[in-house]
Amino acid sequence: MKAREFKEIEGGVTSAKGYVSNAVSCGIKKPTATRLDLALVYSTEPATSAGVFTTNRVRAACVRVSSDHIRRGDVRAVIANSGNANACTGKVGLEDVRTECRIVAQELGLSPKEVAVCSTGVIGLPLPMMRIEPRIPELCHGLDVGKGHKVASAIITSDTREKEIAVSFRVGGKEVRIGSCCKGAGMISPNMATMICLVCTDAAVERAALRKLLRAGVEQSFNCITIDGDMSTNDTCLLLANGASGVKLAPGRPGWNTFCEALQYVLLEQARRVVRDGERVTKFVTVRVKGAPDRAEAKRVAEGVAKSSLVKSSWNGGDPNWGRIIHAVGYAGRRVREEKVDIDIAGLPACRAGVQADTPSDDLRARVQAPEFEVLINLHLGRAQYTVYTTDLSPEYVDFNRSEYAYWNQAKQDGLTR
Amino acid sequence: MKAREFKEIEGGVTSAKGYVSNAVSCGIKKPTATRLDLALVYSTEPATSAGVFTTNRVRAACVRVSSDHIRRGDVRAVIANSGNANACTGKVGLEDVRTECRIVAQELGLSPKEVAVCSTGVIGLPLPMMRIEPRIPELCHGLDVGKGHKVASAIITSDTREKEIAVSFRVGGKEVRIGSCCKGAGMISPNMATMICLVCTDAAVERAALRKLLRAGVEQSFNCITIDGDMSTNDTCLLLANGASGVKLAPGRPGWNTFCEALQYVLLEQARRVVRDGERVTKFVTVRVKGAPDRAEAKRVAEGVAKSSLVKSSWNGGDPNWGRIIHAVGYAGRRVREEKVDIDIAGLPACRAGVQADTPSDDLRARVQAPEFEVLINLHLGRAQYTVYTTDLSPEYVDFNRSEYAYWNQAKQDGLTR
User: pLDDT per residue over B154-185, tens digit each?
Assistant: First the structure.
């Protein structure tokens, strides 16, 4: 394996040249809250852009409008809020998103179609626009470099930490950067029902190439993670490329491969951080399936194991339970042959040819006490493979997600629901 | 709706004429245990038989042998054990099943192919044959009427109660009975990884008709339940018909429709009992999808909702969270149109046309405190429907399933594993 041609640097979503940001506290969840909950990222130069959105048939108002804007052209400003997903809010929800776009556009001298909106939080309640709308001008006027961390803080919800990353590499003597911030949830920390990832680069990349790259990148990062199997109504990953570095990149041209690798690194690293920070999670588990007859079968098996409540419960208990793993392999796969299946847990053989391997169970147990380990499943039916990053299932996760009463009570006080 | 033409009576698996049974305590889990764990049901007359088995690609040794016996002819004796699933045990597992069949056949003067075997318990450990084998003759010699309840006790594992049912109806002045016992688990109480249901009738029914009936019946009962989405390696439902009542039934002949209804009642009632007795479960929830464009879409949506960790966690908290329900509808369905979806919870409108209904949230909450309620989802896209019976997900479920150490430690002492 050759060495990376890019390096990770301190920073986040506005680390690349030509991006400014700001965040304010509107009290979206409740008026007395003081945490940041509304953020804006803006490219001071025109940018090309790409977006990947949830495939859930129920789509939040912000997803509908943002995907429409991306389909028609490019966006260069992204306004994002936490505390409310603006999903299942009907016409009111769409009007609220359009109002946000209109005000941001007015303040920044853009067309409303150049603005994307991301929301994350509870489903089914209208946005408290009486608290958001009056703050947008202030949000725009305070845009500045060096406020990327505030954005990372404003978009998180049940996450326990901000997720920021930036990388740098050189092309023809000039530096190119990619910066990103991200929030968990999505299929992961479901109380909030949203995954958001923003990525900004100062390379110039043509729209078509940028979009192809983001689609492929998300397929191999965010689409490979699961905490609870629940796909959100709001999942959004946006990538902006504004050319402020003076470097123009294109497939086959110098620097392109490095850019692709660096972007993939950013996406995969953010995806992994989302998993590690899953709600009330104690284990980070890589489920790697190889020897599958085709990629679809490898994916079915990996996801089946990663989503099994029984398997995940056993990981929580530090139990190297290969019997539960193979039972999930058997119901998830369509072409699995039990007598060929090998399973390694944390590097030790747990199952060979469908039956118990010789490894002493105490050795397996000791390895599964670690906070991170890999489960390797070889189907011995072909050469296809697939990897999923996932977690255990804890009693605390269920407890944490038992009720959203507090939200609804506040919404009632706000006159947003009965 | 016309009145039922059958009545429920006291009794269980041997309530129909011509069936005897017995159960003993072998200490399958550990030598010192005293609970019943090995059972035998036997039709004193030749019987036709039908079986439905797990569709998991990983199949326990007993499922392989029993399904083979049913494919080749009819069985009239069923030996069943709890405490060990005999799954993923390779050639040893198959030999053990054949040994059980051979001894039972010898004792009862049958061919080994007339014996079916059911096992339920931990996956991946060989059966402790040193404790089972010597007890089979005694099991056979003690066969008697009136011991059905012992069978119901012997096959349960993490179930909190026996599941027995019997029904009776008359055809041309003669009484016909159907009796059954059943154990939970299967997709449900996964620590044990098995669902077993035995049904015995004293009607005479031709093999082909009997098998068609059982397949259709299971499709509308056991295949409509889910606790944790985990399909077992051992699921087995067996139906024996021995004609001891003197009543011969066939499609189109007197009594056939009543027999079909009575059998369906028995299967559905057993399936519901399995759900109600799910591990650490506090709610019994009926998820009914209607207005679907076809049955497959109705099934996808109903199962998606019934399997969502988020939705199930909210039920555990008594939270009438329609937002989480519609988000699962959206990712499970392929043709769902958000703006058409109506959701009623416990008889009250929670969502209309994809947005919040007018029902005060306190009214919804009050209804969801009940131990049983229905979630009705109308997609307004057609006339197909599907119903799934399911439960909440509790912190206690996860806690209960964290570890099977005790089993493995005992197995090590027994010399069955390292």
Answer: 998 777 889 899 999 999 999 999 999 988 75
* Interface contact flag, A90 B355, Cβ < 8 Å: yes
Bridge partners (DSSP) listed for residue A50: A239
- List, by residue range, all CATH 3.60.70.12 domains of chain B: 8-276
β pairing state of B384-391 and B225-226: parallel
Q: Tokens for A159?
A: 């996450």
CB neighbour list of residue B95: distance below 8 Å, 6 or more residues apart: none
- List every span in chain A annotated with CATH 3.10.20.340: 284-393
Q: Quickly state the pLDDT bin for A231 (edges 50, 70, 90).
A: low
Strand partners, A290: A378
- Checking phi first, is residue A332 left (phi over 0); if not, alpha (psi -120 to 50) or beta? alpha
- Let me know: does A16 contact A152? Beta carbons within 8 Å: no
Which residues of A are identified as catalytic?
194
State how far the Cα of A211 lies from the Cα of B382, in Å rounded to an integer.
Answer: 37
A26-29: which pairs have CB atoms within 8 A and are 24 or more residues apart? Answer: A26/A81, A26/A128, A26/A131, A26/A132, A26/A135, A27/A131, A28/A81, A28/A82, A28/A83, A28/A84, A28/A121, A28/A127, A28/A128, A28/A131, A28/A132, A29/A83, A29/A84, A29/A121, A29/A407, A29/A410
The terminus-to-terminus CA distance of chain B in angstroms comes to 60
CA distance A200 to A266: 11
Residue written as tokens 């799910």? Answer: B278
Rounded to a whole number of angstroms, the distance from the CA of A136 to the nearest CA of chain B is 26
Q: Do B57 and A329 touch (CB under 8 A)?
A: yes
Residues of chain B above pLDDT 70, percent: 94
Chain A touched by B34 (CB under 8 Å) = no
pLDDT digits (tens, 9 = 90+) for B387-405: 999 989 888 888 887 777 6
How far is the alpha carbon of A302 from chain B, nearest alpha carbon, in Å? Answer: 14
Q: What is the rounded distance in angstroms from the CA atom of residue B235 to the CA atom of residue B188? A: 11
Establish, for the pair of chains A and B, how many residue pairs have beta carbons separated by less than 8 Å: 228
Q: Which residues 120-179 in chain B show a CB within 8 A of chain A?
A: 122-125
- Closest chain B residue to A396, measured at CA: B395
Inter-chain CB proximity A355 and B90 less than 8 Å: yes
Q: Is B91 exposed, middle or buried (0-12, 13-18, 19+ CB in 10 A)?
A: exposed
Contact B330, B338 (CB under 8 A): yes
In whole angstroms, give the CA distance from residue A373 to residue A283: 8
Q: How many CB atoms lie within 10 A of CB A256?
A: 17
Q: What is the pTM of this model?
A: 0.83
What is the CATH code of the structural domain delimited by B8-276? 3.60.70.12
Instruction: Compare CB distances from B361 to A313, A351, A418 and report the shortest one's residue.
Output: A418
Contact state of B90 with A339 under an 8 Å Cβ cutoff:
yes
Contact: A58, B329; criterion CB under 8 Å: yes
* CA-based torsion, A82, A87, A92, A95: positive or negative: positive
In the DSSP assignment, the letter for residue B135 is G
Quick check: B336 pLDDT over 90? yes
In order of A112, A351, B48, B205, B280, the CA distances from B249 in angstroms are 73, 49, 12, 5, 41
Q: Which residues of A touch B87 (CB under 8 A)?
A: 323, 327
- Asked if the Cβ–Cβ distance from B56 to A412 is below 8 Å, we say no
Residue of B nearest to A306 (CA): B230
Mean pLDDT of A232-258: 91
**Class of the CATH-defined domain A7-276:** alpha beta
Contact (CB, 8 A) for B252 and B205: no
What residues of chain B, 354 to 383, have a C-beta less than 8 Å from chain A? Answer: 354-356, 358-361, 365
List the beta strands (DSSP E) in B54-193. Answer: 77-84, 115-122, 163-171, 174-183
CATH 3.10.20.340 is held by the domain B284-393 = yes
